[in-house]
Amino acid sequence: MMKDNVKSKGQILSGEGVDYKAIFQAVPSAVRVVDTDFNVIIANPPMAALSGQSLEASVGRKCFDTFKGERCHTKDCPLTRVQKTKTAMKAEVVKERQDGTKLICVCLAAPLFNREGMLTGMVESFEDITKQRQAEALRATSSYTRSLIEASLDPLVTIGADGKIMDVNKATELVTGVSRERLIGTDFSNYFTEPEKAREGYKKVFSEGSVTDYPLTIRHTSERTTDVLYNAAVYKDEAGKVQGVFAAARDITERKKTEEALAKQTEIIQRQAREILEISTPVMQVWEGVLVAPLIGTLDSQRTQQFMERLLERIVESNSPMALVDVTGVPTIDTQTAQHLIDTISAVRLLGAQVILTGIRPAIAQTLVHLGVDLSGITTRSSLSGGLLVAMDSLGLQVATSKRTNGKEA
Predict the structure, then answer these.
(1) CATH 3.30.450.20 spans which residues of the chain?
(2) Would the pTM count as exceeding 0.90?
């Protein structure tokens, strides 16, 4: 029934002495004729190839069933608009082949009238511009990507599996002093002070997939160098095959200068701290065989260690059997400080010397008792002078006083 109906409507294609089928066969573009009910009257072989629907399967069926598109059944359908306006129109449309493939086409639709001027159908032609649009999109993407790469202040480079440079940005040209045209195709490792290290770096990326903060030094044609850290990763095609390495270098020249300056400043501070420790822990020989080590300020582990080392060194140097450790200048003594003193005294005894702890004030004595610190095995005195008398007595020395008359000894 439908075939017969279409055949009768096919009279819109009749014309005396005109073989429309022959014309359709000769036209290289995809063309079809549709009646006012959107039934396909006739289509040519290019139309069948484009839609993926055979001519036999297309004729007699609705146009939107044989070559459907996003505009079908909408007011923007080219045939609907032609039917309404009775004028030709051109539009870019997205169509779908029978296998589901989407195509971008330029559609030219024009009305067909009979001799009485009545609209009897429409003729459509399609030009597949899918590849053209894809190429334009690729160019636009490439242009956008290039803009992003050039906007980076960091040197960026792509490297092939053979180690040759595939592309660079302007920042790479500036840091090497070599133009993009001359860089492309050359060995990536040639532009570093340590070529072998650079070669090992990009090989590591290919084997491990990426590297982070890989240190290298770029050499400019003027022999100026730039310290950088490279972050790099492989990039792949749509099939997942590795195509090359994308590497970005961060200039750390200023940071390195700052770190070196900070290291020097730290060294100076540490040296000054050592000097201050030495000054704050003096060990003096006040008599042959007698050393005095006055302590001032708070004692911590570092200062106690410094004090112990200096005291032991002076005992060995001077061969002194007596050492007075005076804590008059120590504001408070807690358990930790007391333990530091006991450790020092124990070390001195191992050298065969005797230690007298002086400067034990009443407040400190009460604190030590309260803390339970045992100093019973240590000789203590409340003052340095008292400690000196004990030291002299231990060495068999006596302090003699003399009377003076008119400034002269009597």
Answers:
(1) 2-130, 145-255
(2) no
